[in-house]
Design brief:
The chain contains 16 helices and 18 strands. It folds into two domains: 224 residues, Aldehyde Dehydrogenase, Chain A, domain 1; 195 residues, Aldehyde Dehydrogenase, Chain A, domain 2, CATH 3.40.309. The longest helix has 27 residues. By secondary structure, it is of the alpha/beta class. Helices cover 45% and strands 18% of the residues. Helix 6 links the parallel strand 4 and strand 5. Helix 2 packs across helix 6 and helix 3 runs antiparallel to helix 6. Bound molecules: nicotinamide-adenine-dinucleotide (NAD). Nicotinamide-adenine-dinucleotide binds next to helix 7 and helix 8.
Length: 468
């Protein structure tokens, strides 16, 4: 703990200089980060292959590319984001000038999960650096090779008193959470999100929580079945389903459900053509560890015991820690696979007769991070949106909203608090300081000073009637 306190004190000392840095300096840091990421691609590929058997193409597509996009977006927009924003004033405040200044929060902590170790650590860091903060990064202990790689990369880009990597597990994270931080950006499970929120309360530290949940995919009778199946299969089985934006389960109109399941199985056969369980270099990532393998296998067994049918997959290989993409039909709604966040390559397809039934079912729990709607009818999409809540919605595709930095990203209640990406990420790491300048020696507001009398009352009445 002493070491962490000393580290924090060093970052505190550096805080003001970093906060006062101009846009050009921040952009240079981001450019350097981009260059190091590009130069170290092979090292990152190898680290993630070792951590959970993720293939190089998927590392590039789901870790390197989105961070680079985030960097480029920040560089293009940083001058505008940093500029004080002039705002208008109400009539009685005539003679004043008002602006919003965006100031760095100070020393921030970024705690990240294992499932996208680079993206979910360096993505928030881009926003923190753009906003002029010093940062401590605490990557997941489950992906030690990626954490080592990031430590080397950060060391080569930033002064060690400006951005530091602290490696360790829950205990290290708990110690970090006791520091009087200026913001905590946490990505991970809802369970740990609660712990983070409680710890933040002790220091009244602001938080962004990017959490989990069960994101549904509605497939209505007017959907294009083949393209829906392709998008769902890709969105669910990328990173072996270990993705917060993966559709957790499908709610399919009964009239198209059989056709959809057949199309899903065909799509999976195409996606996994290089990837049987023993393949040395499969396209599909492995499961992070044995305990998650056991958890997922027992979810399949529980579903089958309660009457579910395995329409595709179902096999596991413990030596390679790989699980076949598995589609389940006829699933009892009380099964674990429908009660817990799956976070793996299992896809239950639940059928409904009336859309309202499906909405009632998905609405019985806190709003999810994402909600997917497959339909050709705008009014059906509108109906689903008006009867539901979620952090984000994608119509006729899966997960791609994550890649648009113009869209704020985040959840609601158990799926998260606050927003990240692009300008929203910059704002998460900034204090919006309201600055007002009085330019008149005798401002009109003096008319409202005491002693109060008839004139004051008339002015108040006039004010209430005419001024807004
Ligand atoms: P996790 O909550 O177990 O761990 C996340 C981080 O918290 C790790 O760095 C870990 O060391 C730390 N941690 C663990 N226990 C802690 C404790 N008691 N106190 C303080 N810190 C602690 O999550 P995970 O298993 O690494 O990741 C999977 C979860 O993350 C899933 O629930 C998934 O939905 C969620 N997730 C959300 C998003 C999003 O953007 N909303 C993205 C990816 C993953």
């Amino acid at each position: 703990m002493e070491e962490l306190r000393a580290l924090f004190a060093r970052l505190r000392l550096k805080e003001q200089a970093v906060a006062q840095s101009n846009a050009a300096t921040r952009k240079n840091k981001l450019l350097k980060l981009q260059q190091e990421l590009l130069d170290r691609r092979e090292e990152l590929h190898e680290a993630m292959r070792q951590d959970f058997g993720k293939c190089a193409e998927e590392v590039d597509l789901t870790e390197v590319v989105p961070v680079i996009l985030e960097i480029r977006h920040a560089i293009r927009n940083l001058d505008r984001w940093m500029r004080p924003a002039k705002v208008r004033m109400p009539l009685p405040l005539i003679g004043t000038a008002s602006e919003i200044h965006h100031e760095a929060k100070g020393v921030v902590l970024i705690v990240s999960p294992w499932n996208f170790p680079i993206l979910l650590t360096l993505g928030p860091l881009v926003s923190a650096v753009a906003a002029g903060n010093c940062a401590i990064l605490k990557p997941s202990e489950q992906t030690p090779n990626s954490a080592d790689c990031m430590e080397r990369l950060i060391h080569d880009v930033f002064d060690e008193d400006e951005v530091a990597v602290v490696k360790g597990g829950p205990q290290t994270a708990s110690s970090l959470l006791t520091l009087p931080l200026d913001h905590i950006f946490f990505t991970g499970s809802t369970r740990v999100g609660r712990i983070v929120m409680e710890a933040a309360a002790a220091n009244m530290t602001s938080i962004t929580l990017e959490l989990g949940g069960k994101s549904p995919a509605f497939v209505t009778d007017s959907a294009d079945i083949e393209s829906s199946a392709n998008a769902i299969a890709w969105g669910k089985f990328t990173n072996a389903g270990q993705a917060c934006v993966a559709p957790d389960y499908v709610l399919a109109d009964k009239r198209i459900a059989d056709e959809l399941v057949a199309a899903l199985c065909a799509a999976l056969a195409r996606l996994t053509v290089n990837s049987d369980l023993q393949t040395a270099r499969p396209d599909m990532a492995g499961i992070i560890n044995d305990s998650h393998m056991d958890r997922l296998e027992s979810m399949i067994q529980d579903a089958v015991k309660r009457g579910a049918t395995i329409a595709h997959g179902g096999n596991a290989d413990h030596t390679s820690t790989r699980l076949e993409p598995t589609v389940l039909t006829g699933v009892d709604l009380e099964s674990r696979v429908m009660q817990e966040e799956i976070f793996g390559p299992l896809l239950p397809v639940i059928t409904y007769e009336r859309l309202e039934q499906a909405l009632d079912f998905s609405n019985r729990v806190d709003p999810p991070l994402a909600l997917y709607i497959f339909t050709d009818e705008t009014k059906v999409a509108d109906r689903i949106m008006s009867r539901s809540k979620s952090g984000g919605v994608v119509i006729n595709d899966v997960g791609i909203h994550f890649a648009n930095p113009h869209l704020p990203f985040g959840g609601i209640k158990s799926s998260g608090i606050g927003r990240s990406h692009g300008h929203a990420g910059f704002l998460a790491f900034s204090n919006q300081r309201s600055v007002m300048r009085q330019r008149l020696r005798r401002p009109p507001t003096r008319a409202f000073y005491p002693p109060y009398g008839e004139t004051t009352r008339k002015l108040i009445d006039w004010f209430l009637r005419f001024v807004g």
